[in-house]
Amino acid sequence: MVVKKKAKDLLLNKMKLIQKHDEQDICLVGPITLPVQLDDKVVTFKWYTWLKIEDEMNTEDVLDSLTKMNLAAMQQSSVLVYGDFDTENDALIRMHSICHTGDIFGSKRCDCGFQLRESMRMIVSNGCGALFYLADHEGRGIGLFSKSLAYILQQEGFDTVEANLALGFKDDSRNYEDAIRVLSELREKPVTLITNNPKKLAALQDYGLLSDTHIPLWGDISEYNEKYLATKVEKSGHIPVKEKMITI
User: Fold this and answer.
1) Whole-model pTM?
2) Active site includes 174?
């Protein structure tokens, strides 16, 4: 079904292509006004989402092909932008990997849900920033189904790195290329990254987008995730912030 002309005109005004030589085009949609309940107040973000598209497609082709793409069976990433993101000098960024169990169910086996909400609070408090929600990063890039198998191994004594390796994956299969392309489209100035992960820092550094500092984000330490957090530092190279939090 072809999108009707009036609707198409409205939608095309919110869509643009991000193109790069020898790489698949990205269709970026937004900004969309999104009021979010954050603790005891409603905060208004600008929401964007994006989709990799086939060669030689334009934004109108994307609209006309929506019903044939079966996007509900795929995963698309998005970004919440707060404040004058394109002009402010000081912007906080969180590259957040989707965590179905932690972000949605509130699982205590990881600190992902805490990091998601806390980074949103930090961005609002700072007055400017963006939270990238990376949908193809579940389980450090192995997907939800594989992550469930990794969890079974972890229940039997494997740590997170050992479980991923036992399933035939790398410790960390995530790639930040698409998110960085979107970031570069939304903002030219350097950003401050909220992270404990040196791989994220290196990815932005390679593009010259990183400021001289980063902000660590440790918290929600419990008996359920202490081994998981220690493994991040000991085997995945995450930057320790407070020794008492990771010396188990």
Assistant:
1) 0.82
2) yes
